[in-house]
């Protein structure tokens, strides 16, 4: 995965694919879509919600992911908002990374 460390939220742009590394219960990478104004939309294991960038990061460094983007940024954000409140999380078939990739490219995986 092509990731770049972000030193400040001011280096982020709307529709950026971002991620943080988490370590409990086991190490994993959590993904979200930056909406601007310090807000992130992401799958919070139970539902898709909007949180502050700080709440998303939980004290961990934020990275951008160079995932494919097929749509204009405004469309990416509308696609994300269309799924707000969704409760269909599945670790293998519909997780946080799948959500962000679908918003940006229309596909949950790289083809």
UniProtKB/TrEMBL annotation:
| Key words, A-Z | Acyltransferase, Hydrolase, Lipid metabolism, Transferase
Signal peptide start and end residues: none
Q: Which PROSITE patterns match?
A: LRAT
> One of this protein's Pfam families, by short name?
LRAT
What's a single GO CC term here? Answer: cytoplasm
Question: In its UniProt record, which GO terms are filed under biological process?
Answer: N-acylphosphatidylethanolamine metabolic process
Q: Which GO terms describe its molecular function?
A: N-acyltransferase activity; phospholipase A1 activity; phospholipase A2 activity
Where's the LRAT domain? 20-111
Name recorded for this polypeptide:
Lecithin retinol acyltransferase family protein
